[in-house]
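User: Structure with magnesium ion, tokens only please.
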Amino acid sequence: MPWCGVILPLEHSYAQLPERFYARLSAKPGPLPQLIAVNAELARTLGIDPDSLKSPEALTLLGGRSYPETLQPIAMAYAGHQFGGFSPQLGDGRALLLGEIVNAAGQRYDVHIKGSGRTPYSRNGDGKAALGPVLREYLVSEAMHQLGVPTTRALAALSTGETVHREEAFPGGLIVRVAASHIRVGTFEFFSSRHDHEALQLLTSYAIARHAPHLLDEPEPIARWLEWVIAKQAQLIAHWLSLGFIHGVMNTDNCAVSGETIDYGPCAFMDEFHPQCVFSAIDQQARYSWGNQPSIGHWNMTRFAETLLPLLADEPSQAHDIAKSALATFGEIFHRHYLRLFRAKFGISADTTDDDSAAWIKSSLGMMADQRMDFTRFFRVLTRHAEAAEDRRIIDHFSFPDTAQPWLDDWKSKHDPALIEEMKQHNPVRIPRNHRIEAVIQAAYQGYFSPFEEAITALRNPYQEIEEFSHWEQAPLAHERVWQTFCGT
Ligand code: AMP
Ligand code: MG
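Assistant:
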């Protein structure tokens, strides 16, 4: 298949690692998938001609129907702490790594296909994905990218023509996603739990060379790598909080060491603000609630640090000390970013001490929760109010209007009018709200994809006011509100 190198010039650096890092996969017979969407802008940044992804040859490849001899698709092995309990054997059970693509800037990206059928790691699963969750991941991951959050991205969505059986029968789907890599905390745990230090060393060297090559010149690259991963994770979670995003299933197998948001399952952007807000139907203990995400980030990083202990120093107590001091940076980095982001959202000046700002932000978020405010809408309305103080419509967003004026007066005393641009750049107009995604999915199940296409356009440039998409700004009406989200792929 000489065309393969033309469509996707793939490399296979991960597949050069020892065989115990993955399972090799072969093509399976079945119908050719049909293309639903190609992300032309992303394809171009990867040096791929978007039209070439529409060819029957590309569908043969993406559907896993036939692979050229040079292609080495694999399912990656990993373990993971799921809701606090350790599973030593997970891995790509419904996904595969087709290969890697290196763009003109020399950045390497995984090209990964989710919903591609059973692998040796599927356990009791069917390896498939329903179309709804595929469209959901496509929209939410692209929205996250447009919002400026590090994330895997969607290159294409396809329908498989097969039926996937969950609690009901659904049409099957595939998502082709692109990531800085799919190495997870759980990948390190896989080898650590097997006491395979040789593999741990190889994985660590590979991950550093791929994600933070500048650290290879440092005297203690592994300690620096641990700090690097911790810093990325702390920043990522501060970013999520600032947008009202709840990942929903931040298990260590869903925590990428690159610092990208990965595995969009039962995730959600909050409508009405509450710090303990949870959507995922399986998160009974609210482990992954909005406000618990920083502690979970630290918990996940502690599991990551544990895997590196044998590599950090020969002397166990010395390794522990290095890990401890790296972990101690998480809180400080998180708070610094959280403060910066929320100061920008409220448009309050950085003249006040960090402690005073933090206390004021906390009490203002408490006010927003008490008033049952829509998180995204309130911050954008505040931005409009800051631009035109005579705009009194902000009062409508308070459930108890009597309390509005004292809070607004207090806010005004802290607000710096020079920060309006900052406010605009940190308070999105449009987010992928659950009820809108639900409507897109229901339409797709009826065979209508125009709502999906509208969503892609509406979620582009999310910080810009666009009259045509003003309906995307609205919070859900009572009957539209989505209370729970499901893994469901
Ligand atoms: P998640 O937390 O949803 O990303 O998935 C956790 C683990 O379950 C991963 O190893 C997945 O590959 C696996 N998994 C989830 N759904 C399926 C499925 N339908 N078939 C096979 N494996 C699955
Ligand atoms: Mg996962």
